[in-house]
Amino acid sequence: MAHPDLPLAGIRVVDFSRVLAGPYCTALLADLGAEVIKIEPPGGDDYRAVGPFDNDESGLFAAMNRNKQSIVIDLKTDVGRSLAQSLCKGADVVVENFRPGVADKLGIGYAQLGDANPALVYASVSGFGQTGPNAHRPAYDIILQAMCGLMDATGTPDGPPTLVGESVSDVVSGLFASWGVLAALLSREKTGRGTHVDVSMFDATLSLSATLVARCVTTGIAPVRTGNRHPSSAPFGAYRAADGFFVVAVLNNRLFETFVHAIGQPHLLADARFSDDHSRCRNEADLRVAIEAWSRDRSVEEVNAILEDARIPVAPIRNVQQALESDHAVFRGLLTATPHSDGRTLRLPSQPVKFSGYAANRVTRAPGLGEHTEAILGQRLGMSVERIDELRALGAFGPVAEAPNETEMESHHA
To answer: Is this entry keyworded Transferase (predicted)?
Structure first.
């Protein structure tokens, strides 16, 4: 029987991060039951203003900030910093993705918060890490893809370096940050001590490039672009059909023999150019001609049916919408229909790992800006409504709007 709680139930996270890498980390934690308190500046997380939009709300913000609560705190004020520090005293985890040194200046660095809460797990996600010659540099996904060799390894051999079609540096950094937080929490169970988890997007992106790095350190040569094919196996890549493209993955001689019989070209077995994987890879262009002579008069659906029947690894090339709406994605529950406070139904993602001993992931909508300010301060810090009003008047939640004077009111009503 599934446990009614989720694996991270009872873990409290204070999230100072914004945009993508940090919020993705805390979204993954929230999916599994962690309580995530998102602290936003008076203007809100920048992602709130980035499209696409649905009813004036950012779809990117909605996806990366599911299952969270929002409180607005102005960290540029003394009273705001004191308030944030109080919330962190009762936290298990703090996540931030400021440039190195900024959190310290704002009074929420690891040195300060860790002194007050020695069991705190504190995760910093930054472009180049907390140390090193590039630590001071700002970073965006395109910068990391360029600097880590990912763009250089992506694209066709005769084409330019190409961006991967996802913000992979941000996403993998958030993923590694969540992994680091969980490892630190597990260690804390044994030692009682927290730690500072330093996640560099540069490090994370190079670590993501696991096969590229392995080939480079083995050969001493940077891998070159190979386009839509495997660098050391064939046929292993994308091929043209009458109405689109499909991919096949043939990794050994036995499978190649099955493949050539399936496409009606058994004579290829006697061709020295295709005698083993190394030869097939070296002569991939000639092999491609033979394969597409068979596939170019067949639809992608027909090609897939024939090769699937022969137990050849094959797939159509889908777009993201087709993938999300596929029978398998629907069965696995990769999107969850979630009610919005205005009556709309949102479809939101969740982390993909299944746990046999626990209920399904939590999936609730992202919060409105500052939506939970009063509730968090009342429940977590025991503040009265009067004290919260005092903090508001002191600017803890942002600049206080001045009441119009009588002259302005008369002019307004004139």
So the answer is: yes
